[in-house]
Amino acid sequence: MKLMIKQRVLTWADTYDIYDEWGNERYFVKAESFKIGHNIHVYDRHNNEIALIEERFFSITPTYRIEVNGEKVGCIEKKFKFLDIKPEYNVDFNGWRVKGDFPGWNYEVYQDENAIIKIKKELLHWGDTYVVDFNSAQDELYGILLVISIDAANRLGKIDVVDDILDLGFDILDIIDF
pLDDT tens track of the chain, all 178 residues? Predict the structure, then answer.
């Protein structure tokens, strides 16, 4: 089962639309605008809030607490590195481990020794677009919460419009192999 996470561009706050592989809207995600700290709300297709990703404001590195239906289910923290060329994350979430190429947005989520979710960034899209491939539908909500948390940790401090333009430019350069 696959979901596509598409980030909207030219918005005041991070906003994502999430579709299934047949193009049906599954979830809607929107960050709060003009607020200290980064709080991201996740809604089902009926506009019911089902999850919250909340930045822990007084931490040294980007750290996000994840709640589902008001209950804490995990935490994602970007590890501190002097030169942040290849970011790494502490994942205290559902017993999962995450491995792969985070800057290239090509990574996998493991439960024990089994890869259960694969995340890949699609190229040549206006705004970030990710394809999330699940082995089991039961991991769907937690999988998108993980992807959005990591995206938020990577975006902290960036101007999204400029970042989206640069991403598109680098995606084109990757394709023509500069």
Answer: 999 998 887 766 778 999 999 999 999 999 887 666 789 999 999 999 999 999 987 777 889 999 999 999 999 988 877 766 677 888 999 999 998 887 667 889 999 999 999 999 887 766 778 899 999 999 999 999 999 988 888 775 444 444 444 444 444 444 444 4
Give the residue among 47, 163, 32 at the shortest CA–CA distance from 103. Answer: 163
Residue 51's CATH number: 2.40.160.200
The residue among 67, 147, 39, 68 whose CA lies nearest residue 102 is 147
Q: Which residues contact 128 (CB under 8 A, 6 or more apart)?
A: 5, 6, 7, 105, 121, 151, 164, 167
Q: How far apart are CA 42 and CA 31, in angstroms?
A: 9
Q: On the CB side of 33, how many CA atoms lie within 13 Å of its CA?
A: 5
Query: Both tokens of residue 76?
Result: 């994602």
Considering its fold, how many domains does the chain have in total? 1
Place of tokens 């938020």: 152
Query: What is the 3 state secondary structure string of 67-105?
Result: EECCEEEEEEEECCCCCCCCCCEEEEECCEEEEEECCCC
Range of the domain at 124: 2-176
